[in-house]
Amino acid sequence: MVLNIIPDEVSDMVARDECVIIDVREPFEYEAGHIEGSILAPMYDIFNDISIVKKYEGKKIVLVCSSGHRSYYTGKFLEENGIENVYNLYNGLYGWEIEEKPLV
Which site in 8, 21, 51, 61 is 20 to 30 Å from 35, CA atoms measured? Predict the structure, then answer.
């Protein structure tokens, strides 16, 4: 089951170097603003080549999109294909910005 995670929990995991943040939006969305240190891997790229994410197995994988929908469905796809420790940023970057977390 893909677990939803709130911005403060993501910040804590980043501070402890426990996770990798994967932004599943499109490149133009990523360029407009993203979480510092996040890796761009658009959803359909992951669907076509799961090895993009497999190299991060062993860490917690936090998926991010604008609202939390694309990242949730990407997480379900990953779990259905054997990848564990997948988290979805609840409300996506919209929720991140509401909590006044920074974007770069």
Answer: 51
pLDDT band at 57 (very low <50, low <70, confident <90, very high): confident
Residues β-bridged to residue 21: 62
Query: 55: helix, coil or strand?
Result: coil
Question: What are the angstrom distances between the C-alpha of 101 and each of 13, 18, 26, 47, 83?
Answer: 14, 19, 21, 29, 28
DSSP 59: S
Q: Tokens standing for 50?
A: 């799961």
CB burial of residue 37 (10 Å; 0-12, 13-18, 19+): exposed
* Terminal-to-terminal C-alpha distance of the chain: 30
pLDDT of 58 > 90? The answer is no
